[in-house]
Amino acid sequence: MLTIGTYLQNRYEILEQIGVGGMSYVYRAMCHTLNRQVAIKVLKEEFASDEAFVEKFKMEAQAAARLSHPNIVNVYDVVDEGELHYIVMELIDGITLKNYIQKKGQLETREAIGISIQVAQGIEAAHAQHIIHRDIKPQNMIIAMDGTVKVADFGIARAVSAQTMNAQAVGSVHYISPEQAKGEFCDERSDIYSFGITMYEMVTGKVPFEGDNTVSVALAHLSEPIPAPSQSNPKVGLAMEEIILKCTRKRPEQRYQSITEVIADLRKALVNPDSDLMGLVSQDLSQTKTLSPGEVSRIQEGSRRLRRQTPESDFEEEPEEEIRENPADADQEETSRRRGARSHMRRPGPKTERDRENVNPQFQRIFTGILVVVAIILVAAVLFVGAQVIGLFGRGTSTTRENTVTEASSEPQAVTITDNQVFMPNLLGKTQDEAREELAEMSLTLSVSGEDYSENYEEGQVMGQDIPEGQAVERGSSVGVTISKGSDQVLLTEFNLPGMALSQAQQLLEEKGLTVTVNREYNDQIPSGQVIRFSPDEAKVGESVVLVVSQGPQVVEGKVPKLIGHTQEEAQALLTQVNLTAGEVRSEASQDVPAGQVISQDYLPDTMLAPGTAVGFTVSLGPAETAVQSENDGGRYYLGSIDTTCSLSNYIGPASQISSVRVAIRLKQRVDNVDLYTTLIPAHTVTGGQTIPVSISQIRGAYGVDTGEVEVVNAETNEVIQSYTISFFPVE
Predict the structure, then answer these.
(1) CATH top-level class of 568-626
(2) Strand ranges (DSSP E) for 505-552?
(3) For the domain 628-731, what is the CATH code?
(4) Which of 91, 460, 479, 715 could form an S-S bond across to 664 if both were Cys, CB 3.0 to 4.6 Å?
(5) What are the backbone dihedrals phi and psi of residue 198, each rounded to the nearest 5 degrees, phi first?
(6) Cα distances (angstroms) measured from residue 359 to each of 334, 336, 354
(7) Which are the catalytic amino acids?
(8) Which carries the bigger pLDDT value, residue 367 or residue 323?
(9) Residues 491, 102 contacting (CB under 8 angstroms)
(10) Would you identify the CATH topology of the domain 7-90?
(11) Sorting pLDDT into bands at 50, 70 and 90, what band is 123?
(12) pLDDT digits 0-9 by tens, 320-358
């Protein structure tokens, strides 16, 4: 793990850790060469000695570096430096799709389609380079502040090769394709399956399979059918549901064969979300549109009763795969069955000759009989309702209307409403004003019976109604509804709590309905009273959040504090706190450090000394031009020069090619019994036994002083590594 302030390649300064994965740490860093912030993914130390891991890491990085697309997180650099292996990537200011889903719950269909198209375009660019992501999931998708969606972390991605044939299953188990779960051959269609699961989560707010362990979830992906998204979210568009179900077919050959095909259908769905893209669901009979939800259920129940009345022995079971050999037939049958709530009847797909040969003749006769009976039931229901509309079954001057649906028993049951009654509409998902307006049109009034949190409905939407949809209700009645307060899940990562004052953070969290527990610890970097970190990352309303707050640096007797950057008075006070004393206080001109602040100190911070030890330090005099009262004798001044080299081999050690030291070059002159220091070359890092040039053609000295010392110093300790005497001469 890298520490804050570490420099990589003398270019990337580590600012903070922003994430951690199974194989690597991720840091925010500043690239000082290009003056931009980047993300750096560093392989964990425990894997650095594993050649297989290192090779995989390098291969994946090189594959990702070939990709350049607006919907892919760009890779800038791949570095293999001794035992340190890291990738420099584009830093995106935004939120992961996973967090976005957790925040919003179920996404509206068009929004989900818009996000999906962007993700699919990024995957398409990778597939064009023969790169499979192998870990498609919402956690690896970032929504930037401008709305751009980027696919991130090709850390599991591999260039398609012979190695893929025997590759072990990788990827997150909730999004894993069946072939990945079995450790079989994976190709672009494996990404399409995981992408389908991701789209499922967008429109439903959850993954299709949950389990006590990863094995149970993986087995579900292998054997259990994906539930229709409309079962969890009735508002999802038909076209989007069909796309999701086709992406998540168990057999790769039954899915979309390319991500380009998926994009084409997503664009069609964006134009008309409720269109039947696959031709799998028949059009509703126009006559049935007058039936209430209760009447529809009775028709379906009639069909189920008839099936139950037929002895099971009359059917000879055949394997499902033998009956559904044609993939298109399988798509038709499964999707139509799952969308029964959207369509009153299913149009059977064409059967192949093999299909006809494999179906048992007795089963065929019985099934045909069932279809005939069901058709009769439907026709009877339609005729009955139509007859009522035209008055065929009129009852004189009666004001009563009757809607009758025939059950499988052929005994009619009547649902009767009067002219003073209406069927209760579905108010779920509507705003309070929308629900009130709809009820008013039906001579009903709305009353708010309560509020509650909901993961499925946004704040202000109706999440429950006292009278169920389809029930007869008297005009003028009051309908009670429960209004959603939105999700009770609070995402703390959105509040930028680290560095915030305790009082401010506590007030913010309590306003969100959370309780706050405060723990304190010493910290050398975070000022006292500010938040260091928090846990957990998200919490429900009413739960407790732990804030760890800084107490400032820990005071330990004899432990040298950091004096640099403080004034002389502050430095002396800090030394007194730890039972140390101020030693020699030196002065030095500085172009970089304001006058009065400490430039260097005799002992490094955190060094343990005996109580009472004197610690000397150097205070800045400010820029050299203002540090000394220079004279002007007809425009004359003093000038010197130096041209030599300084070897650091004896200082650092010639055999240590990875050791480094920060050095600076300065001029030292004695002026009015005060040592005056002027920086000639600012501090910079030198590695190994390197020879550095000490060559400056013009060095302007203090007026009237004809000698001086050019010193090569350790910038961190102020130790003089090498000193050179030079002479100064007056110049007109």
Answers:
(1) alpha beta
(2) 515-521, 531-535, 538-540, 544-550
(3) 2.60.40
(4) 715
(5) -60, -45
(6) 18, 20, 9
(7) 135
(8) 367
(9) yes
(10) Phosphorylase Kinase; domain 1 (3.30.200)
(11) very high
(12) 332 233 334 444 444 444 444 444 333 334 444 333 334
